[in-house]
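Chapter summary example: a protein plus dinuclear copper ion.
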Amino acid sequence: MSDKQTGDKLTGTVNQGRRRFLAGSAAVGAASVAGAAGMAGVGALTHSQPAKAQANGSAANIHVAPGELDEYYGFWSGGKSGEVRIYGVPSMREIMRIPVFNHCSASGYGQTNETKRILGDSAKYFNGDAHHPHISYTDGSHDGRYLFINDKANTRVARVRLDVFKTDAMVTVPNVQAIHGLRLQKAPRTNYVFANAEYLIPQPNDGRDINDPTKYHTMWNAIDADTMEVKWQVIVDGNLDNMDTDYTGKYAAATCYNSEGAVTLPGTMRNERDWVTVFSIERIEQAVAEGNYITIGDSDVPVVDGRKSAGLNVTRYVPVPKNPHGLNTSTDGKYFIAAGKLSPTVTMIEIAKLDDLFEGNLSDERDVVVGEPELGLGPLHTTYDGRGNAYTTLFIDSQVVKWNMEDAVRHYNGEDVNYIRQKIDVHYQPGHNHATLSESKDADGKYLFSLNKFSKDRYLPVGPLHPENDQMIDISGEEMVLLHDTPTFAEPHDAVIIRRDQIQTKQIWERNDPYFAATVARAQEDGVTLETDNVVIRDGNQVRVYMTSVAPNFGLTEFTVKQGDEVTVTITNLDRVEDLTHGFCVVNHGVSMEISPQQTSSVTFTADRPGVFWYYCNWFCHALHMEMKGRMLVEPA
Ligand code: CUK
Ligand code: CUA
Ligand code: CA
């Protein structure tokens, strides 16, 4: 029905009139009124697909009744919001937000001493650009331990604990700029987090070669998933955009849209072909073990030269049509599939051929390509249903195309088969898509999300800045059916969805949790037992205030400091009741933090003005929550 011609010019602009017209004309046969409106070009909105979903009953299946639990956890990246958002799937109820690269007014993330230790030197940045969330693996299945995510804005990689849903580690990758594509080793377990640095910079970037782009390079980076230390880096030709890993733990592949090594937009479009860079993890490890590396500047991370000219045979560069974008491994473990972006094709690389490629048994790098189906305009990302079908977003066509992988291979071999199964309109212009469990060998082909960059007319207007629009599509049957629209705020790029039984959370904190272990150790140096003591300790102009909280009381209802003191307030929540979180907020001091059951949280600030300043609990905890407060008395200097 929507398998329309794709003869439009390559253009990245959104044509609202065109989409409305298409929506209208598609409905001509079914509803003459809507069809006439569409043809008259007056922009009447027709909702042909939701109507269809209701007609066959699918919409009813996504209603999760009040009090009932969802089937899946969905983890959405927050783009330039810097956070991670948790949705229940299929209800698309937003359950939680996890601050990662941003700061958080509610929890005190970025302000408390515990979270500042995690953020380290980058605690001074209030922004991030979080694109690619991925969940740790054992043997190709998600093990629900950790989620890892990149920060393109400040070149960081963060880890989120999925037992408490808190960010617990972060690293700024040295020698590079703008971590973009990020993926995890899938087997035998996630030992490495791999991270693409996108932008080319001089090496070392100390000001000497700023005017000589031929000296600019970027690197592929491996981070130890357990220690979150950068283990090694690989210099590459060109740049690195998106990436994925295989299901054996041996290979990874990244798209490069800038084989030209250009620093301007026209420059990056010059070559007819760019490439997919393939990395041999064991060959890189071997080069490091043999001392075949350099270090750069004041970083001591081993840097292996993976450029063609170095001849180390740790990388291979497979030519693909110009400026590719997404790269997604099929869940049967057979293919790396790179989306063409400026080409209407995707390129299928057979992973089983990569041993031969690295061993020099192939005459041409292109010999690993086993399919290059033409799908439509602007292919960006691909996901899978575990039944042999792939689903690729078409940014310019504003569609998701379902196609069959084995038929695409047969077509490449000259057989006359149609590999396209269906195209469905999405609203509007999708980036990533993601189907349930589709980054693991357990892909179950139930729901697919199209993460669309524009919502335009789908919601009540909210001024010039619009939300994005994430659409849920039923892929369990032969035909894709649009089920639901969800507005999202700037700008989830990507998502990962796993079954609810794959996550085991703690309901209250354990007192020996490493999240606040350094704070507990500091209290012990002061001779303080956090679970019992309510004391104020003066140490020069530093004052450490220790108190407990039990609803609806703070252990101290007042404490006295001197103007100019650096005050650290450490609070231990003795409540053991699930969901009984307290807060600590000091009026007119910009201080606020969360203290969940059995948690210890601390915050440091300067008492810069004399007078009385109230502090209060700002997480609703009790009928007498409003009364849970105290006074900070600041004596004049
Ligand atoms: S990138 Cu955003 S649409 Cu950063 Cu994964 Cu393709
Ligand atoms: Cu304690 Cu509100
Ligand atoms: Ca290019």
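Key point: The CA atoms of residues 580 and 621 lie 6 Å apart.
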